[in-house]
Structures are given as C-alpha cells and as structure tokens.
Amino acid sequence: MVYSLVDTMSQTYINIKGTSDGLVIYVGAGDWNTLLTALEARLDKTPSFFRGGRVALHIGPRHLTAAQIETVGELLKRYQVSLWAVLSESGETQAVASALGLETSLAAPLVARLTGKPADEGGGEGGPPEESAILVKRILRSGQRIHHEGNVALIGDVNPGAEISAGGDVLVWGRLRGTVHAGAGGNDQAIVCALALSPTLLRIGHYMARTPGGEARQPEAQPSVPEMAFVHDGQIVAEPWRESDSLYGDWHSDLLRRAANTLSTWF
Amino acid sequence: MGATVITITSGKGGVGKTTAVANLSTALALSGKRVVAIDADIGLRNLDVVMGLENRIVYDLVHVVEGACRLRQALIKDKRVETLYLIPAAQSRDKNAVRPQDMIDVCDQLRPDFDFVLIDSPAGIEQGFKNAIAPADQVCIITTPEVSSVRDADRVVGLVEASEKGPPRLIINRLRARMIERGDMLDTADVIDVLAVDLLGIVPEDEAIIISTNRGVPAVMEDGSRAGEAFRHIAARLMGQAIPFMTIQERPAPSLFGRIARLWRSA
Question: How many CA atoms lie within 13 A of A91 on its CB side?
C-alpha cells in the first residue's frame, strides 16, 4: 500500500476496501479513540455509500476488548452498517469477537489473499501464513471460536460447543472436547495433539472423524493419555503419546544401557 | 458504601434463576441486609409471583426507565421481611423496552440506600441478558447437573468473561444424590470440571420449593427445607462468610461415622 501525501488523516489510519465478501475496514496502528473518530469521519463523508451494507473489521495484531468491539458496532449501526466479522491476529480478540457472535474470518481463500498483502503497519511474519502460530491461554468455551491460518496452540480446555479451526496444526495443552479442524485449507498432513483427545468432531484436511459412541458426553472414566491424531491410509487415526512409541524410545533405552555399562565398570 | 449488584443468570431456562433470586434476596434481608430484587425478565415476569408480591404491583421497571414514575414508587416493600424490596418487570412489554444503560442508571440510584441488588436475568443470551448483566458487580451462573444446562452455562460464562465482569461464580441447582450414586446424574465435580469457575453453592432437589413458589413464600423463610438451608448458606457466602458446602444426601447416613460427622456439623 502506497500512501498518497494528499490523504487526509482519516485515510492514513483507516483503509476501506471492497472485496467479494463486502467491505473490509483496515484499522492501522495508533490511538484507538483517534481511529474511531477517523472512522466516523469517513462514514460521515459518504454515508450513502455505506448505508445498509455489512463490513468486516481488520485490526491486525491489535487487541480489542468486548466493549471496544461493541463501540465500533454501535458506531457503524448509527450509519446503518452492520459489523459481521472482526479479523485479528490476537487469539484473545478472536475469542472475544466470537463470544459477541461475530465471525473471525472471511471465506478461507479470501483471507489467504488478504493476508498475503502487507498490513497497514507494514509488518507481519516473513514466512507463509501457514507457518505462523498463535498461542492462546484460556478456556475456549461453548460458542467461542478460534480461527487462524497457521498453527494454533492453546493452553486450556476446549469445551464442547467450542471450535478451533487452523490452516496448520492444532496443539491443545488441556482437554479437547469441542470441534477441531486442522489443515482447514486442505492440508491433510496437519496433526492434532491434545492432553485428552475427545473432540465431538475432529477434521484434518479433507478427512473427518467423530469420537466413537458419543463418549464425549461422558466424564472420562479413566485418566486419558495425551494423544496425537493424523491422517494415515486415508483415515484419521489417534495414537497415544507414549515414550516407547516416540522417536526418543530407542535413544532413551540406549542411554540407560550405556549408563548401566559405565556403572558396572566402576564397581 | 454502596450496594453490591449481583446478577443471577443461566442461559438455559427453567433451571432456577427466579427461585434463586427470591430465596437469596429474602435470606439476605432476613440477615438484616437492605436488599432490592429486580426482575429483568420483561414480558415474562414471575419473580413477583414467587415472592408473593404480585397483587401489590402498581409501577414496574419499564415505568421507571420511561420516566412514568419515580424509582421509589416502583419499589414494592415486602410485608414479611422488613428490609426487602422488589422492582417488578413489565408484563405487557418486551426486552427492547430497556437498554443496558437504563439498568446501570437504575442500579446506580439504588446503590447508596441498599446493601445488595439482586437481578433476575431472563433466559437466553440476547438483549434481556445483556440488560441484566450490564450493571452487575458480580455474576452468578446457575445450572442444573444436566449436560444441556451445563453447555449453556459454559456459553454464558464465556459471555460474562468477554464483558469484563470478572469470573462468575456457580450455583448448582436441583442436585439429586441418589441419581448421582447410581451414576445417572452429573456430579458436582463433573460440572466444575467443565466450567472451571468457583462454586458458590449446591442446592439439592426439594419438593418444598415447588410448594413454596406456588404459595409465594420463599423456602428460606421456613425451617425444614433442604433447599432453603442451601440458599441460606449461599446468602451467607455472598455476605463474605466462609460456610462449608453441605453434603447432599437424600436420607441420613447410616454409618456411625456419618452420624458423628453430622453432629459435628450441626454443632
């Protein structure tokens, strides 16, 4: 994006673009209240252009509280514009937005196109979007949704009715009992790991699996082991994460053997 | 020192919000606190019925909000308990008759003269719910030990957290010990396990509640009701007292140990 010198201040901070999914308002860095004023100025300039439409708000890495999102929603409402999505790189903001009933992504291919462009701050990760990762520390509750083009790591539980969707891998340091889709862009190589893997629906790339027998409803009878799910021979399989199964198994026993040998030479 | 505003909400309907508000506000008033109960379930009012004050309604919450009467005029004084008041909901209107800011204004007017304001939230997560939690200093979520109720409670916990009200506390209502023993009902631990919020109290299933709500005499007014006793304990916890949780049993423990334990508790 090249800024023209004749741009008004409002255009410097607020960029509005038309896409096939409607209007997207790009909010740059800077003081939030200044941005709100700038947005209002833009709306005020050509109210008929916006009237009756719906917009998505693209806020980059910025964190917004529920109150701040609602303020924007109310501002837009005054100009008869409805806010339907908040696109944020902050996992917490995504969760807040989804708790308010807003979408957190546009249609998947469109997001890929949009995030391919430099953001208004000119920042962003160097690599392709699927290699970026977000870390979220919270309980993902029923009705809340996290979507990210890259990998998602969550410290906390994913409760029934909650949803994680990731372009890459999903790692849950907690109990995964909601819905999860790894490799949502069609990547069948993606994996899902959880300390307790009992999702109501598990999807990897083009594949889909359910916890057998609706067991997700029942409290776990026995302490479960961490598991990893991946696609193998055209279906999703989940394997317990045990030391003996891991790559380190041989190395570990080898080390023990060597230690025992060393000890026996000492005594 | 101003009043503490506590909103009781649940998401799902029929789990005991109104019963809880009637009993907790009565129990708090019986302990000498000055209490107002507000029915925010506009269009489906019944807190007045449960509190036995239905035939004394002249003005309601919507009248106050619309300026048709002064706040004092809508305060119905309970005849049995000195320091207990009710602001009833309007029956002929709907949730859109009140905005969140109206609820904040009403509560701010009440704060100087009372110790507690308890708000009975409508079911659901729409306008009525938003009105009910807007003025809250604390939010109590009430759930029954059923999967559907817990699911809705989880959704509401997420919404309360997103509105920056601080972590809500939980009341588990209508617990049936014998069903838990048979493994037919979620245990307290199962509920806490999903919701991961602090427990405020456990209320056993009690037929006396049905009788008391029909008669308009909250169960806490009479001795001998297990549910009433549980609500008195919760009220005490709201006043900052540390009361141990009661063990829910449907018949007295037969063992010697159980009898000693009960004697010890009642001492």
Answer: 23
